[in-house]
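Homework help thread (please don't just give me the answer)

Our assignment gives two proteins as sequence + structure token strings and asks us to describe the second one. The first is just a warm-up. Here they are:
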Amino acid sequence: MKKSYLLALFLSPIHAATLHVATLPLKRMEVGFGKPKAGKSIDGNGLKIGGKAFADGIGTHAESVFPLKLDGKATEFRASVGVDDETGGKGSVEFKLIGDGREIWSSGTMKGGQKAAEAKVSLAGVKELLMVVDSADGGIDFDHADWADAEIDYDGAAPAVGKLPSEEAVVLTPKPGPKPRLTGARIFGARPGNPFLHRVSATGTKPVKFSASGLPPGISLDESTGALSGKLAADGKWDVKITASNAAGEDQRTLRIVGGETIALTPPIGWNSWNCFAGAVTDPDIRAAARSMVSSGLADHGWTYINIDDYWEVKPSAKNDASLQGPERDADGKIEPNPRFPDMKALASDVHGLGLKIGL
């Protein structure tokens, strides 16, 4: 009996250990919006796909990538995937597994309201695995993606969080030549009597000197920055001859200035603080962004706007959570300065001094 028992043990298959992927540190998961959550959707609700609730898994958002290091020790990946029901039927994504640089599984397009797709994929020999969520149709809006019940069977060392493939930064825009080249808008509109600010932009070796002929009454040009400022005296149209010159040569073109009610003639190009700073934005952040727009050369190509998104009006709380402290107002209901933006007028003046525009 003893001999038969030992032989039976020897011949029995060794069961692989199982890792619940949601137990791994999720900080290295790249997410298109919000933060990934273990056992919850991206909005912090219970995981639910096509009417079915799941207790385990990861809530993320397209575009999303999670790198895993397997070292060839994993045997199988399993998960139920889909768009979380919290979107109300909106959103469309595609789940993919990339093993050692090649796609080994795809869910196809998954839309809000659909039942979960089941993934059961062999990982034999795979050393590096990427769990990927791509947007499918119409951008990333409502692309709340769930890797429900995500598990990996393995023998030996447990899977761990890996590193994302590195990509060398490449500038595709051709480098400007030394000779000036006028860029940006060829038409600009403004209402008479209102402050007028438009930056004539040009590439070329600095310093570049600007000049103009045929300017409308009330408008002047800063020859060193290319900033047109002042106030239009009346409605009208003016074709202004602009010249940009430096030691390498010069360039000329016509800028049409239109005075009247039709003012949105120039497509706005600029920067918004939300995707960089969200609710933590401060006065120094905005000043740095404005200086960077000039020093990077973006302003030389017609980039104009520095916009401060929400939370500029709130005070930091003791917990450093801006959302917990509303704006302070004076007796007339006007928003008071706060420690993050102590002097909005001075900030706006400095941004305008660079020939740029600032908005809230």
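The one we have to describe:
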Amino acid sequence: MYINIHNQEEVGKWVQQLIDEERLHEFYTSSYWLNLRDEVLEEFKYECQDCKKRGKYKKATIVHHVKHLREHPRLALSKTYIDENGKEQIQLKPVCKSCHEYVEHPERLRHNVKEPLTEERW
């Protein structure tokens, strides 16, 4: 399937369809996402941005959608978004597995869940 990755509305319709049909894994295995994911990791030198804020270094292995994919499917392939004040913000942020699980599911970390908790399971 060809998607114009520069057209947020077209991307949004495609991702929403995958969400509705419970096939979101297809997004995470698409060449669109894999290429963009690699690009973002390289741009940030594979550094976890949350650890970096705390003065630590840990290798980033996941690219996190700041505005969650299920709520904002049109931003699925966008590196940035414009906030309510008109400022450009980072939409795709490299993080390590620990930081990603904390951001996505802080309540589960208290219960020491070891299984994968996100769509991006590899």
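TA reply:
I won't write it for you, but here's a hint about the kind of observation we're looking for: The CA atoms of residues 19 and 70 lie 7 Å apart.
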